[in-house]
Amino acid sequence: MIARMQVRTNSEAITLRDSYNRPIRDLRVSLTDRCNFRCFYCLPHGEPPIAPKEQMLSYEEIEYVCEIFVSLGIEKLRLTGGEPMLRRDIETIIRKLSKLRPALQDLALTTNGYFLPERARGLKEAGLDRVTISLDSLKKDTFKRMTGVDVLEKVLAGIAAAKEAGLEPIKINAVIVRGHNEDEVADFAAFAREHDVKMRFIEFMPLDSGHEWDRKDVFSGKEMHERISERFPLVKVDVARGSETSSRYRFADGAPGEIGIIAPVTEPFCGACSRIRLTADGQIRTCLFSTVEHSLRDVVRSGASREEIIDYIHSVIMKKEPRHFINDPGFVAPSRTMSFIGG
Ligand code: SAM
User: Fold this and answer.
1) pLDDT tens across 146-173, in order?
2) 3-state helix, strand and coil shares in percent for the chain, rounded to the nearest 5
3) Would you state the pLDDT for residue 2?
4) Phi first, then psi: what are they for 295, rounded to 5°?
């Protein structure tokens, strides 16, 4: 019950806080472990055996626990995976979750964009606010080499469809890996200007299923910034960074679009982390790099009351790690990869 005291009520909002007094406002919910891409930095050797369906949270269970999380102060929900659009009829869960407004302020989806050309409009109609789309190269061959699939045109059409449907602001995620796509960083910035999107450059993290991550392959946030500034001078966006993962920049010449640099390896931002994750099989993860998980699914399925579930969530949040340990000598990568954790 001590943990319960961490729910602090002021005149405006309830806030869930961890033991380091960080407010927890952002929940990422993985809808499936399956993916139709084979990005070499995530799932290079294909999918490991997928857990049986009974172990996955049902839409009813996801709706139930998300309602509880939102009642505890979660303001942002991001649906992810695997590839979340591989889960059947995600419009249904979006419709259910969008009823959690106004306490829920932001309902977003991270996707590889493959299914967006046909479905972006339906997602918007179901109540989705916005999408983040992964795009690692603007070159057909590099895209295929990095993702394992030859579908660049389809993803570009997906971005256009998302824009058309009003799933904005659109963010584009590019993982930059030395020797693969660092030559395209400035071209991506040009893409952001041309299409008025928020480009997010992400450092390569040790979350690949092949466990082949090597520090020398990390193209640092600093190097990304230099590459872009050589072609397009940048100005820091003048907002408090808060819990945002990225350092944000606009173009000095006033062009549309925005740049965000996410540098968890070379410039960790754990002190302001407001995120927790729920895997497709119902495990709470308090850090991308956690080596332990907490089965919310088992608690819910054991017939626990709402109060007991709330107590459990509090007790788990109090265990949130102070920081990740990527840069420590004894670092051990989590056994689950990004596709299972929910990026
Ligand atoms: N399938 C969706 C997609 O492609 O966006 C959602 C899941 S994916 C795991 C979420 C994000 O994690 C993607 O932007 C992906 O590029 C990123 N990601 C995966 N493995 C990563 C790694 N080892 N380092 C950095 N980012 C990674």
Assistant:
1) 999 999 999 999 999 999 999 999 999 9
2) 35, 20, 45
3) 37
4) -85, 90
| Ligand 1 atom 1 nearest Cα | 83
- Which residues are bridge partners to 295 per DSSP? 283
Q: How many CB atoms neighbour CB 160 within 10 A? A: 16
What is the token pair recorded at 295? Answer: 């089965």
Tokens of 60: 């009813």
Place of tokens 């916005």: 130
Measured between alpha carbons, how far is 318 from 18 in angstroms, rounded to an integer?
5
- Ligand 1: atom nearest CA of 80 is 6
Backbone angles phi, psi at 50, to 5 degrees: -85, 140
| Cis peptide leading into residue 102 (ω within 30°) | yes
Handedness of CA 186, 189, 194, 200 (dihedral sign): positive
Which of 116, 175, 177 has the most ligand 1 atoms within 8 A of CB, as the residue to mutate? Answer: 175
For atom 12 of ligand 1, the residue with the nearest CA is 343
Pocket of ligand 1 (CB under 6 A): 35, 41-42, 80-81, 83, 110-112, 134, 173, 175, 202, 204-205, 207-208, 338-339, 343
By three-state DSSP, how is residue 23 classified? strand
**The residue type at 202:** I
pTM comes to: 0.94
- 78 with 108: CB under 8 angstroms? yes
Q: Which structure tokens are listed for 300? A: 């819910």
The amino acid that residue 92 corresponds to is: T
Please answer whether residues 202 and 173 qualify as being in contact, where contact means their C-beta atoms are separated by less than 8 angstroms.
yes
Q: Determine which residue's CA is closest to atom 22 belonging to ligand 1.
A: 205
166-205 confidence digits (pLDDT tens): 999 999 999 999 999 999 999 999 999 999 999 999 999 9
**Helix and strand totals (H; E) in the chain:** 10, 15
CA distance 341 to 274: 16
Give the closest residue (by CA) to ligand 1 atom 13: 134
Examine residue 169 and say whether the peptide bond preceding it is cis (omega within 30 degrees of 0).
yes
Its sign, for the CA torsion 240, 244, 247, 250, is: negative
Supply the DSSP symbol for 104.
Answer: -
